[in-house]
Every structure is written in C-alpha cells, then in structure tokens.
C-alpha cells in the first residue's frame, strides 16, 4: 500500500513541528509548503537528516509550488502571520483572510479530496473562509482549537489534582481561546466529574474558576513569555491527533471547529463542538445537553464567531 501524503501549508514554527511529529509517527510522506523560499526546503532537509537517527522512513520535501501538494490525503494549514505580543487574534483577520484565499484555491486545484485541518487564527473565522475559498465538502474541512484548549485545561487540572494527565478528560466547546466554554460536568479524573471532585475536597470552585480563566488566556500567556511568537508544540500535537484519527480511521471523539447546520441552534457557522473524525472526515457531530451557564457562554462564543464572519464578508466581497 502506498504511503499517505501529508501536506503542511505553512512551514513556520507550527508547520515544522507538525512535520517532526508526523515523521516520527510515520503517518506518511510529508510536503512542507511555504511562500518563503528556502524555509520549507531547509526544514525538510534538516528533518530528513534526523531520520537515520530516529529510524523513520517518511520522506520529506520542501516546496514553494502548489503542484507539490498534488493528491495529498491531509492538508494542515498554518500559513499566515502569527499573533505578536499585544496583538489580538482579530487584528490578524485581514492579512490571514488573504492567505486563506490563496491556500483555499491551491488546495481546490491540487488536493480536492484531502482532509483539511486549519490552524491559522482567528481560527473559527479562518476555517470558515478556507472552506468557502476551497469549495471542499464541509465534512472534509475542520479547525483545530478544541483539542488544544482541552489539552491546556487537562494539563492544569492534572497539576491541580496531582494525577496523571492520562486520567484527565476535559470537555471544551465554543470558539477558540477567550470565548471557549469548558463543560465542567463532563470534565473528569478517570470518570469522576469535577463537581464531585470539588465535593470530595480535591479542589475548590474558586481554584477551578482560576484554571478555567488561565486556560482561556492560555495562548496569550505563551505569547507573553515567548515575546517573538506564539505557541507551537501543543498546537502541532493537537492537529496531529486529528490527522491521525482521519488517516487511521480511528473515529476519535475530539472537540474541533466544525460546520454546523442547525446543531446547537447554529446554522452555517464553524464552532467548536465534539465531533467524530474517521476516514470520511467529520462522521458525526455530537450534540450534548448544556446547562444554563454553559448554554449562555456558548451563545456568547457563537456571537463572537458570527461577528468575525461578518467582518470577513466585509473585507472580501466574494465571501458575502
Ligand atoms: N502561503 C503559504 N505560506 C504562507 C503564506 C501563504 N500565502 N503566507 C505566510 N506563509 C507562511 C510564512 O512564510 C510562515 O513561514 O506561514 C508561516 C507561518 O509560520 P509562523 O509565522 O512561524 O507562525 P506559526 O507559529 O507556525 O503559526 C501559524 O497558526 O496558531 C496559528 O496564530 C497562529 O495564525 C498563526 C498560525
């Protein structure tokens, strides 16, 4: 059986880390595409030279032409500019919208059957725009946000409870970052929901509230520390989990930005919800019942995404 082909559109910090992880896991052969000349070629060569040491057989290639992504099984999009300190995700809207147009057209022309994972921020609007520009089926285009937000939440919870991250599950809905909605009742340690753990004296509501807040501003905290860029290790790991579920038909249930057609009362918008990812892309959108608080927070989150999409339509009339 021929190897799978993974195209990484954008070979910056996240793109390079995606290539490293995909190669180490031997998910397939990898093409790093970027508009910057030399950057994808340099990273591909550097990573290839690690293969004898690590023992992986994935082939890596750097490219500046969309021809090289031809017939990719998966495209992971990080092309665009990253958030700088003091810059909100929304400031990125205009520049990255232009990038999504070029990338969407490139994917449509050369890899129309691929499963596309968008990472570029502001995520919920960019994944919507990328789908519009590419014209691919909605179930083949998703955004990576919830896996990262949940991972951040899980990490902080594991620290709080002093247990293995492996035993912590977190449930996050809504938009990426500031407007994400953690659903505490469905977040557990080995199946024990957080409210029960609070009753058992493992933590307090105040401490959990602080963890939720820290998770919401998790991206900003890292930007503040790095000063010259944004997070890349955890975002790359999160997108690879999604790609792996598609490539291996694992049917994992993961929180992702998916296109809603009435679920959760939302129509024609990408919002973070639990989905099942398998060989057909988004195979199921999981609709859970929300309590009043979560519902109110979810609605705020949806409004924020709606505003971004309206702004996109204002900038790019072709999207209206
Ligand atoms: N086509 C292809 N690549 C492009 C294009 C384009 N039109 N425009 C920019 N790029 C490339 C840049 O040359 C750069 O190498 O995208 C890459 C982005 O890499 P970084 O600046 O290192 O950004 P990174 O940290 O990888 O984040 C990428 O993901 O989480 C989001 O906010 C983040 O939107 C940002 C994206």
Brief write-up:
By secondary structure, the protein is of the alpha/beta class.
Note the topology.
Layout: E1 5-9, H1 13-24, E2 29-33, H2 39-54, E3 60-63, E4 74-77, H3 93-110, E5 115-118, H4 123-134, E6 141-143, H5 146-161, E7 168-169, E8 172-173, E9 181-182, E10 188-189, E11 192-193, H6 194-199, H7 205-216, H8 218-226, H9 233-247, E12 252-261, E13 267-278, E14 281-285, H10 292-315
Parallel strand pairs: 1-2, 1-4, 2-3, 4-5, 5-6
Antiparallel strand pairs: 7-10, 8-9, 10-11, 12-13, 13-14
Helix pairs in contact: 1-2, 1-9, 3-4, 4-10, 5-7, 5-9
This protein binds adenosine-5-diphosphoribose.
Domain Lactate/malate dehydrogenase N-terminal: 5-143
Function: Catalyzes the reversible oxidation of malate to oxaloacetate.
EC number: 1.1.1.37
List descriptors:
NAD, 3-stranded antiparallel beta sheet, alpha/beta, 44% helix, 10 helices, binds adenosine-5-diphosphoribose, 320 residues
Q: How would you portray this structure in words?
A:
The chain is an alpha/beta fold. 44% of the residues lie in helices and 19% in strands. The protein is built from ten helices and 14 strands. It has helices at 13-24, 39-54, 93-110, 123-134, 146-161, 194-199, 205-216, 218-226, 233-247, 292-315; strands spanning 5-9, 29-33, 60-63, 74-77, 115-118, 141-143, 168-169, 172-173, 181-182, 188-189, 192-193, 252-261, 267-278, 281-285. The strands form four sheets. A six-stranded parallel sheet has the order 3-2-1-4-5-6. A three-stranded antiparallel sheet has the order 7-10-11. Strand 8 (172-173) and strand 9 form a beta hairpin. Helix 3 runs parallel beside helix 4 (123-134). The longest helix has 24 residues, at 292-315. It starts with a strand and ends in a 5-residue tail after the last helix. The mean pLDDT is 94. The protein binds adenosine-5-diphosphoribose (APR). Adenosine-5-diphosphoribose (APR) binds next to helix 1 and helix 3. Adenosine-5-diphosphoribose binds next to helix 1 and helix 3.
């Amino acid at each position: 059986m021929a190897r799978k082909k993974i195209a990484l559109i954008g070979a910056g910090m996240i793109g390079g880390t995606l290539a490293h992880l995909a190669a180490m896991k031997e998910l397939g052969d990898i093409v790093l595409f970027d508009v910057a000349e030399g950057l994808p070629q340099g990273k591909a060569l550097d990573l290839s030279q690690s293969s004898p040491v690590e023992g992986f057989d994935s082939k890596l290639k750097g490219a500046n032409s969309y021809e090289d992504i031809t017939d990719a099984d998966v495209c992971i999009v990080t092309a665009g500019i990253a958030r700088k300190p003091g810059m909100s995700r929304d400031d990125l809207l205009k520049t990255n919208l232009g990038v999504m147009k070029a990338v969407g057209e490139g994917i449509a022309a050369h890899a129309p059957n691929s499963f596309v994972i968008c990472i570029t921020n502001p995520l919920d609007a960019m994944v919507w725009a990328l789908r519009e520009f590419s014209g691919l089926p909605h179930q083949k285009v998703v955004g990576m946000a919830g896996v990262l937000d949940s991972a951040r939440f899980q990490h902080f919870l594991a620290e709080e409870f002093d247990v293995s991250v492996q035993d912590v599950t977190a449930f996050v809905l809504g938009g990426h970052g500031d407007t994400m909605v953690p659903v505490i009742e469905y977040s557990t340690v080995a199946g024990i929901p957080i409210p029960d753990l609070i009753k058992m004296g493992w933590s307090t509501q105040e401490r959990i509230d602080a963890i939720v807040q820290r998770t919401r501003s998790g991206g900003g905290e890292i930007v503040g520390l790095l000063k010259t860029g944004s997070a890349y290790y955890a975002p790359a790991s999160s997108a690879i989990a999604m790609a792996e579920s598609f490539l291996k038909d694992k049917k994992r249930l993961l929180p992702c930005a998916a296109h809603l057609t009435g679920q959760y009362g939302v129509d024609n918008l990408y919002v973070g919800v639990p989905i099942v990812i398998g060989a057909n892309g988004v195979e199921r959108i999981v609709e859970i019942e929300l309590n009043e608080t979560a519902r109110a927070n979810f609605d705020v989150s949806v409004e924020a995404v709606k505003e971004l999409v309206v702004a996109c339509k204002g900038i790019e009339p072709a999207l209206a």
